[in-house]
Amino acid sequence: METTSARRVLALLRRSLAPKGLDVIIPLTVESYNQYLEEDTSAASDLTRFQLPIVSDALASHLLVLVGNSRAMWGPFLSNVSSELKHSGQILPNPIDRYVQLHVETTIKDLKRDGLIEPIQTYWVADTTPGKMILAQKMALAARVVTRCPPSQLCLHPTLGPWLAFRCALVFPVEGIHPISNAEEGDAEPMPEQPSLCSHDDSMHDLLAAQMADALAQVQPDNPGVIRPDAWKKWVMPRITIAPSHRLMYSSEQILYHYTKDLAFLANIVRTKEQNLCTDYLRNSPPPAAVECRKLVQTVLREYRDKHPEGIDAISLSGGLDTSIIAEASDQEWETDHGIGVFSLDKASRARPILRFDHAFTVQAKDEAKDAYFAGEIFKRLRGYSLSHHHVIKASLEDLLSHAPAVAKLLVSCDPMELRNSLVIYATLEQAARLGVKRIVTGDGADEIFCGYGFYHKMDEEALIEYRDQIIRVMQFTASRLAQAFEIEVISPFLDERVIAFAQTLSKQDLVGERTPVPVDGPDALHGKLLLRQAFPEAFSQWRSKQPIEEGAGTTALRMGFFDGHWSQEEFEHHQKKAFRDHGIVIRDREHLFFFRAFLDAFDGDLALVPKRRRTEKDEEEEEETSDGSFCPACRFELSHAAQDFCVTCGFWPTRITPTNDKSGYATQALTTLATTKKSLAETR
């Protein structure tokens, strides 16, 4: 029978240990643990030698409590290490084991002080002495509160995932308690019983098995108890693979110490945390190219600062990496008093940004759009130091679409992707103009020159360089053209010729790679603009994943069915045929139809008024369509650049076949499909 004494003991353990980060408290019984070991068939050897002794025949069962920690232990543990450093000037061996023992033993004293039953035996997970060694994972499995993942040899908690560690077990001379019925105070329901085995599929198990084999290969044959100092990543990868970017994942610093046990690194962590310093480069120096990149971008930003000593009117703050760097980049050099790359993060002192702004603007068309959150966090950091006002422009999709004719005319475009993004920029500029802004800074160019787009990730080196250089030749940005309508000057630091020239010297390894110093978002997660991220660790959005303007602001909804209710399929096909018959434009979908009609309205219904050269229908009849690659085959308007394979007027891609866009035959297929579509539309005239 579950006893009041057991519940009181558990309540005190939680109350005393949880604030210290020892917040994993798992009750079971000695008997259930012993039985589990007896019945477990997963081990290659007999596990009964690890059974615990039964101390009294007077009880039907004995309370056994397994104690562990989540990421919550890291902060209190660092405080404890800090005190030790101040007291003795060094960190003694095994600091985590000593920390756990200190607080568990203090809690046992509290039990005695409160008149509760003390444990009759304490087992430490770190103690592998025969007769004292316990199998902590088996205890958790016997309690049915975790699931076992065989290839990774990890326990998976329903809340914490794999991000927990077991530290000790306490045996009490009271009746045990069933863990599943033991709802913690304030819980709505008890924790559900966990299955014994994980639900990962065979491909995941194969990957984890390969990773574990790779990790085990790091063990030094002459000293099996020690792994190579640089092998930590091999050991942590199964854990990350199971639960990448888990909300309760250990921090990068916690992971590095957990797998390296590097006391010098731990001392540096304590120092940097106390002084609010960057921790990215405490174990490894920054890449030389990142050092050069930082110096160059700082030079460009300083020149703008010197040109505008009173500050710049505004920044278009999406909260992405690019604008985060522009807003937050400080004057700090790589060589600091604390080591290479150990920058201050204190915005009030050494991390004060190079540039100052009166206003920042962020558009939010959907509540779930992320730009407003990231921009808001940046503003919190900079308010009172380098940024005075942050304006979140909450606009409905209908509000933004009301500007479609004006934007279409200014850009001379009905390309849905272009307009989806540019409506956001237009709303920003309109609000900026109302507030008297004359200059605004944007992050334009960083994605193009530093390979920020996801399609770069799978390209080989040659294809990436070729495509990057082609984009640089033809790239153009709508902010400056839209801003002219409001008499606002656009400043784009990443479009400085020196920055572009530097970017063109970089290899794929410099531009695309995993997160550093710990790839917490998984083995397959790659980040573009890698050097920029590594060069500016003071940026809040340093590792924010790439999101185009439309996604960050919320206008992506326009291509996700927003226009489905505007026209039935029959109505859409009618308008599609009419657009081709009357104007020679191939309409691809309902969103494209909406923006084409806005484009047509902008030019009074007459495409002859569009200020662009256009090939006539007669030209098409007399020539092979691919004979002149300077015109778009879907709308017949002239392309923006001789090397361009994307039409900025209607958004069709690819307009011609190139070695890059046809490596898998995509361009050939797309142009064949277009020809078939045009033939079908022509036949229905």
UniProtKB/TrEMBL annotation:
InterPro entries: Asn_synthase, Asn_Synthetase, Rossmann-like_a/b/a_fold. GO terms for molecular function: asparagine synthase (glutamine-hydrolyzing) activity; ATP binding. One of its GO terms (cellular component) is cytosol. GO terms for biological process: asparagine biosynthetic process. Keywords: ATP-binding, Nucleotide-binding. Residues 315-459 form the Asparagine synthetase domain. This is Asparagine synthetase domain-containing protein. It comes from Pythium oligandrum.
